[in-house]
Amino acid sequence: MRRVDMIKRQSRINVLVLASLAIFGATALGFGQWVRYPTSGVPRKADGTPNLTAPPPRLPDGKPDFSGIWHTAVINQCVQATGAFCGNTEIGGSPLALNIGRDLSGGLPYQPWAAELVKRRFSKDDPHVRCLPDNPPRTWVMPHLTKAVHTPRLLVLLYEVNAMYRQIFIDGRPQPDDPTPSWNGYSTAVWDRDTLVIRTTGFRDDLWIDMSGAPMTNTATMTERLRRPNLGTLEVEITVDDPKVYTRPWTVSMKQELILDTELIDEICLENEKSWQHMQTPQSAK
Amino acid sequence: MRSSLRYALLLVFTVSQTALFAQFLGYPTAGVPRTPDGKPNLAAPAPRSADGKPDLSGMWGWVNFGKPCGAECNDTQISVEFINIAATLKGPLPYQPWAAELVKKRRVQQGLDPNVHCMPRGAPRIWTDDYYKRIFHVPGRVLILTERNMQYRQIFTDGRALPKDPNPTWNGNSTAHWEGDTLVVETTGFRDDLWLDASGNPLTEEGKMTERIRRPNYGTLEIEITINDPKAYTAPWTVTLKEPLILDSELLDYYCLENERDSKHMREQAPIGIPQ
After folding, report:
1. B40-70, pLDDT tens digit by residue?
2. Which whole number is the average pLDDT over A237-253?
3. What is the C-alpha radius of gyration for chain A, rounded to an integer number of angstroms?
4. Closest Cα partner for B246 from B63, B17, B3?
């Protein structure tokens, strides 16, 4: 199992490097030994392999503990038509990264203006391509690992891209009335039995939620329902209610699988940034 | 030199945006000890984790420069260490000759500062940063969440060893152990080209940083930073910072890169991965 994981991890990194070089122009990633540091406290079967169907760990307050490193369980398969994206290797990330509405019959229920906008959105316009933050919900489907660090009052999600984080408050605070629009929005959560129900508002008006350019705007409310039915699985159900863009709320579900014996690798997309040549040298230096 | 440093600060702040406000900012911090008149008792003992060690969790600020720096850098209050991490030390840092030359060059070419390009500031600079950070202290690790670029740093307290041949990174690799009530953090694996401050004091791939972090009372965090980098310095040196607890507030997302200029170089093409 561990060997398989390591091979997958190797494959994932190769794909990341290829994708980075081919598409994003970022620097190649290297290896630190922490990538193979064993995860502690993993329940084992009699043969010593991780028991991924064991019950989930629990927080001190008795609720499920979502802590762990996660990646989409259904991995986007490389096909010839998308060869430019995956370089004929198997890429991580969910097929939902390309089209978040692919499992909905009829696709996403766009308002007419939004359908027109999507036709005009090209990859060069994608904030992700310009090293800008990956906002939720697309963070769940990208070909990068997500690390959840969970305490009773706060859930923090750490992302490899740009070494960024997202905070989800479980401390009873209300949603802000008039928030500053942001990439992550403002996330508060309550428990519904063993399901964490996260409500997020306060998004920017110009977000992309997949590589097709599906929009999300400042009128959106996103609801995520997170469950950890067993040690190895995190179920994520996402409902987007954005009346400006969509004629009705829609819901997609996905599974994340636990990734053991590894660690996040910082990927600072911006290292290929080109602004510096426009910076001026102070007169005093001449 | 002084004027060039000011110019550099101007550049830094030109790239920065003014922080805006959301109501999460006014949300009261829970569990704050109070004096009889209801004010936060910042001199109360530090909270403790389940294992009995000090809990470093909280939002932490910085000690201001002390005076507004005037029109050249607006009224943003930065720490003196942001400009020169060794500002409180007597005399110059013990540079190796090449490093002394490098600093001279960097001081007049502030456009070389990775910070100006919206790059990460790196682990040491997070402490002198003019942005709030949240320490999130859980069993096995300490996370430092920063407002700038919404970036994090991880410090592992789970007993793992530092990697022997790490991939060089901005933050390096950090492990920590307790000595009494002091968290001792060892970090190696830095990139070879780091700036410790706006003056361009270097940190290289041979650099080892030791942070001794204490929370002497509820409202104060003390960070003693020792830099041992024989490639750049002839001797180790140590600076100590005190940082105040920030109550009833929240981290604001600030993404420096929103001023970036790459997009015009991207080619017009079909959306990635979508068959036509």
Report:
1. 999 999 999 999 999 999 999 998 765 555 4
2. 98
3. 20
4. B63
> CB contacts < 8 Å between A and B, how many?
199
Containing A115, the helix (H) or strand (E) segment is helix A112-120
Task: Read off the pLDDT of each residue in B69-91 and give the average, rounded to a whole number.
Answer: 74
* Helices assigned H by DSSP within B55-173: 80-83, 97-107, 123-128
**B163 closest CB neighbour out of A33, A121, A162:** A33
Q: State the pLDDT at residue A210.
A: 94
Looking at residue B67, its pLDDT comes to 57
How many other CB atoms sit within 10 Å of the CB of residue B210? 16
In sequence order, which ranges of chain B are alpha helices (DSSP H)?
Answer: 2-15, 80-83, 97-107, 123-128
Closest residue of chain B to A266, computed from CA coordinates: B169
How many other CB atoms are found less than 10 A from the CB of residue B20? Answer: 13
Please give, rounded to a whole number of angstroms, the shortest distance from the CA of B127 to a CA of chain A: 17
Number of other CB atoms surrounding residue A31 within 10 Å: 15
Given an 8 Å threshold on Cβ–Cβ distance, is B253 in contact with A182?
yes
Task: Write the ipTM.
Answer: 0.77
Q: In terms of pTM, does the model score above 0.90?
A: no
